[in-house]
Amino acid sequence: MRERIRPVSYAVVATLAVVAIWFTPTLEKKQVFAMQPVVVSRPGLEPADFVLSPLVVEASNKELVDTLAIGGVIQSSLYNALNESGVGVLPPSARHQLAWSLADIFEYKVDMSRDLMQGDKFHVLVERLQKPNGAIIVNKVLGARLALSNGHSPLEAIHFDTPGSSTGQYYDASGMSLRAAFLRAPLVFRRISSVFGARKHPIFGEWRNHTGTDYAAAEGTPVRAIGDGVVIFAGRNGGYGNMIDIRHRNGMVSRYGHMRNFAMAMKPGTRVAMGSTIGYVGMTGWATGPHLHFEIRVNGVARDPKLALQSRSGEPIPADERSLFQKMRNQTLASLNEAHFASVAE
């Protein structure tokens, strides 16, 4: 029965198709114009072999670079000041990147968490780069100036490429490297919870001399060695909890307490480099919350870390590069002065 129905069904479909074709009206003939193909090309690629409209489109993979000078006044933080001053010339992501770059450049001279004050001024000269996809980034900071309201001379940074350096370094106006022998702080993310000097002990409730600086941070935050040196102690030490002492080349000792745990291979005799991770923030020993207790000891006596590390200057420009550096310095400072005048005029 099924074999008989199938031929009949095919016959019905064929008949309906013939009827539909018979009654379909004839379309009017239209004039057709031949059009030249559109070449969609890009350097290094073959032209496309199809077109949609007679329009030549050519893409480029070139990057656009220019320089930009920005100046501003700090009211609450360097990031907020840069975020406001860079509106219209840098996207939010680039302004955020620039704030971190300036913090890194002046890290050895300024502790951004406590040295900056309302009314301090900044001026920065950057190399702005626009990628082929339109994204804008800060490719390089060419120069910067921080005018602090503490009465000292402005801090200046000039980018200069020295032989053997792939990325260049930053120097002050006199040609001394801003990369000092020691970091100003042992944490990447830092907030001061207690400074050097007399304080009321949070556990014992009595006034005691605080022999270091406490940096409150999330548990597990990496702790960095502030300079090259050798570990002379790594272990448990009473109220310090898990503690590491590092002796540096000038005989100064840096101490790190209350750590949750140490990095691999941290033991007496281990050599560490400036900025290397030696442990992680915790609350071992006498601690009411996660933080790092940081000390500087000179000849066995605790010193205020802020003062002890402030005067540790870096290496000078090589003598055979000084003439070229001075030309670069003069050009950079002149551009920073223009940024200064522009910000004052506004």
Q: In total, how many domains does the architecture comprise?
A: 2
Helix content: 10-25%
The number of strands is: 20
Biggest sheet architecture: 8 strands, antiparallel
Overall geometry:
extended
Binned strand content: 25-35%
Task: Give the N-terminus to C-terminus distance in angstroms.
Answer: 95 Å
What name does the CATH topology of the largest domain carry? Answer: Nuclear Transport Factor 2, Chain: A
Backbone CA Rg: 33 Å
Mean pLDDT: 78
Output the number of helix runs: 5
Low-pLDDT windows of residues: 29-57
Question: Can you name the CATH architecture of the largest domain?
Answer: Roll
Q: What structural class do the secondary elements suggest? A: alpha+beta
Give helix and strand order, one letter per element, not per position.
HEEEHHEEEEEEEEEEEEEEEEEHH
